[in-house]
Specification:
single chain; 293 residues; alpha+beta; Zincin-like; four-stranded mixed sheet; 10 helices; 7% strand
Length: 293
Amino acid sequence: MYDAIASNKRKTYLLIFLFFIFIVFLGYILGSLYSNPVFGLSIAFIISFVYILFSLFAGDSVILTLNSAKPADRQHYPHLVNTVEGLAIAAGIPTPKIYVIDDTAINAFATGRDPKHAAVTVTTGTLQRLKRDELEGVLAHELSHIKNYDIRYMLVVVMMVGITLVLSDFLLRSLWMRGGGRDDSKGNAILIVIGLALAILAPIAVRLIQLAVSRQREYLADASGAMLTRYPQGLANALKKIRDDKEPLIEAADRSTAHLYIENPLAKTRKKLSSVWSTHPDVNLRIQRLEKM
């Protein structure tokens, strides 16, 4: 378990490094289209730098706002606050900020850049419809995301998707504007082909990485959460209720943040997606793994 957590941290740095190389290459191609690679690299650097700073220091606030999450205080949600505090002590992390989404669906997510700057959010349906041990299982799962630094990794991946989309759109627009240009040299044609391929395929590739990373980390959070509560069946029972929920759609959920939830909040589209494009591993497999622990 601890090796997996350390591996998560190493992969975060590796992913950032590889992504930096990719951004440099994308910027070079963009600049070469204007016969000025320095211009392209400068544009890529400025966009990336601003986006990274914004994501790291304000990304969690944006995510909470997008999902209509409101702060939960001890006066109105005493059991929720007490449970999160107890689990945080057991996990050896600072108590995260606690938020609630007013929705009947059963779901939860965690966000932030590290355990000292993290938040956990649950729906009112989670509080109303889960038993005590089931709620503890769900919250332990989310706090495990925080302890395992999954929240930072997923913030980095979301950041990657955003930067790639912006640069790819910039590149496509540049190619379109140069469509009628006079420079028909072989070298320029090759650059246009490479740029077009990157602009189209890069967002897809980054999105697939995001989904694959999200699925693997859900399994780890399930296991880590079970270690915290010492009762895997609690989370398993909660997942069963989520699976069998007749109205699991969260109205405030957004496609860009769906991977953060304990289970896909856009349930109406979930059954239409193949496992490759799914934000989460199959819930039945997760339940089976928990029940075998």
